């Protein structure tokens, strides 16, 4: 790992302008809206519906953006931050900056190299990757592509504790440094874009590689997934999700692993306080990119209440709706220690595979670095609430 912090901002800008002198423009657009439009052209209608869609009227997706847009940065002059250091510690690892890739299922719909491309992109930048329970490759294959770069594992806790336990133990064995349990998807949200085309990737056997490679899952099947893929896909639909999941049940994870455990999907102060009192190691404030509870609050609006309830005892992270360096800056200013990047890197992947995902992550680090320079912040710790004009929801 390289300990010398890279100045992504000026380096990335300079290299892009220099290539422009030679007539080349970036294949991967440097702002979200252009990126999204280009990705849509590259993606199948099914991949587009699945990725871009949200729950119901998509009002929680809108709320995610509105929350960031309502709050503005009040730029600070002459503080002096000639050298910025974005390095961020998370669960014992030192990351290039305060970002990580969110777990995203079924990446094979966007690019054939799917999670392997994301593994290579994140490893190249030293950005932590959260491997999804719904990945297109097994976690062992992903780890091979990822090398010794920092990674975490996202757990979907379905009907079978045996499968959850097996996933956690496999994740520990491949060197994941924390487990993120996703709580907001105990069943699938109401997703009209997918429903209207009758498309579920999982029924077609996509995005279930963690299961088909798992001994506890395979033990439930009449034939191996290689012999009978349809039976495996059907079994997955029977196993996935459990709307009865509760605090008592997830506490079992402590007997399976010593790894830090983070709860993904905490949005309320009372749930945050319970996360602390139950002894968990972190919170990821998330509404699943607005894909689960239509009408839900934006994550950036939920963040202050969660941060206050956590009382500095455990780190609070945030995802959902983060689209640019300024969004990352605002989240850090309100007390987040890091942010998760979701759809933006998926769109980069759809456009240009590993290089595309990598470009998007590098742009986000670069834009954050530029925003820090323009506000006199030499490190993420120097980004405080005094730099924000808080909007009223
Ligand atoms: C296509 C897609 C698939 C996702 N799959 C998973 C998943 O497998 N596990 C999970 O915990 N979250 C999943 N999420 C939610 C993300 O981890 C993250 O919370 C969300 O994408 C953040 O919002 P953003 O896309 O607006 O940045 C998925 C999101 C999308 C868009
Ligand atoms: C519902 C899961 C199986 C995948 C997921 O997290 C998602 O599509 O948002």
UniProtKB/TrEMBL annotation:
The record's PROSITE patterns line, in alphabetical order, gives: FMN_HYDROXY_ACID_DH_1, FMN_HYDROXY_ACID_DH_2
Q: Does Iron-sulfur show up as a keyword for this record?
A: no
Active site at which residues? 288
Q: Which residues bind FMN?
A: 103-105, 154, 182, 264, 286, 319-323, 342-343
Q: Which enzyme type, at the first EC level?
A: oxidoreductase
EC assignment: 1.13.12.4
User: Which InterPro entries does the record match to this protein?
Assistant: Aldolase_TIM, Alpha-hydoxy_acid_DH_FMN, FMN-dep_DH, FMN_HAD, FMN_hydac_DH_AS
- According to the entry, every stretch annotated as the FMN hydroxy acid dehydrogenase domain falls at 24-393
Record keywords, A-Z: Flavoprotein, FMN, Monooxygenase, Oxidoreductase
Where on this chain does glyoxylate bind? 50, 132, 156, 191, 288, 291
Requisite cofactors? FMN
Recorded protein name is Lactate 2-monooxygenase
What is the scientific name of the source organism? Terricaulis silvestris
């Amino acid at each position: 790992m390289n300990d010398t912090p890279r100045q992504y901002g000026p380096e990335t800008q300079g290299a892009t302008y220099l290539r422009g002198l030679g007539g080349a423009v970036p294949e991967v657009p440097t702002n979200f809206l252009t990126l999204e439009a280009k990705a849509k052209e590259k993606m199948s209608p099914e991949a587009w519906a699945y990725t871009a869609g949200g729950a119901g009227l998509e009002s929680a997706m809108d709320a995610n953006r509105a929350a960031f847009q309502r709050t503005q940065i009040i730029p600070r002059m002459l503080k002096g931050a000639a050298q910025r250091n974005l390095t961020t510690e998370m669960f014992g690892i030192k990351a290039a900056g305060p970002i990580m890739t969110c777990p995203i299922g079924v990446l094979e719909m966007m690019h054939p190299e799917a999670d392997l491309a994301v593994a290579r992109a994140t490893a190249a930048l030293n950005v932590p990757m959260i491997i999804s329970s719904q990945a297109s490759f097994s976690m062992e294959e992903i780890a091979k592509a990822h090398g010794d770069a920092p990674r975490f594992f996202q757990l979907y806790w379905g009907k079978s504790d045996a499968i959850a336990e097996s996933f956690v133990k496999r994740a520990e064995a491949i060197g994941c440094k924390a487990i993120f349990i996703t709580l907001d998807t105990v069943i699938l949200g109401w997703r009209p874009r997918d429903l209207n085309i009758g498309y579920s990737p999982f029924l077609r056997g996509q995005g279930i590689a963690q299961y088909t490679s798992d001994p506890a899952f395979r033990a439930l099947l009449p034939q191996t997934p290689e012999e009978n893929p349809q039976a495996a896909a059907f079994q997955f639909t029977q196993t996935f999700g459990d709307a009865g999941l509760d605090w008592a049940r997830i506490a079992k994870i402590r007997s399976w692993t010593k790894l830090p455990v983070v709860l993904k999907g905490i949005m309320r102060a009372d749930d945050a306080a319970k996360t602390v009192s139950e002894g968990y190691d972190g919170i990821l404030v998330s509404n699943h990119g607005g894909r689960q509870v239509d009408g839900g609050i934006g994550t950036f609006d939920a963040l202050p209440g969660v941060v206050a309830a956590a009382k500095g005892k455990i780190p609070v992270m945030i995802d959902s709706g983060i689209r640019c360096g300024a969004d990352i800056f605002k989240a850090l200013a309100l007390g987040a220690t890091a942010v998760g990047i979701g759809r933006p890197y998926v769109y980069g992947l759809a456009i240009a595979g590993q290089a595309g995902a990598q470009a998007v992550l590098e742009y986000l680090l670069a834009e954050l670095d530029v925003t820090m320079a323009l506000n006199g912040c030499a490190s993420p710790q120097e980004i405080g609430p005094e730099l924000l004009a808080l909007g009223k929801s």
